[in-house]
Give the backbone structure.
Amino acid sequence: MNPLGEVARARRWLAKRPASSRAVHEARLSLKRARALLRLGRGTGVETPCERARAACRRAARTLGPLRDERILAEALEGLLARGAKKLPPKARERARA
């Protein structure tokens, strides 16, 4: 494993299925692994480039956070609607899915 390989893996996941929960999850995991690998650069004399790269990975992962949250909430809402759709009035179901 290397940090650049993990970043490339994150990009591939997002290029394949940008709106899928799994792609966002896998991309965030890859970025987390890249940051962990870059942490190994501490004490080697390359701290500054490694810290910059870690900060870039951290920013990228943070931008994916709201998308992840949105996808999870949408999936949870769909599950709730599927289980309790008969109990809701039709207008309420339509608004919830909008």
Remarks:
- The chain has four helices and no strands.
- The CA atoms of residues 17 and 72 lie 15 Å apart.
- The mean pLDDT is 82.
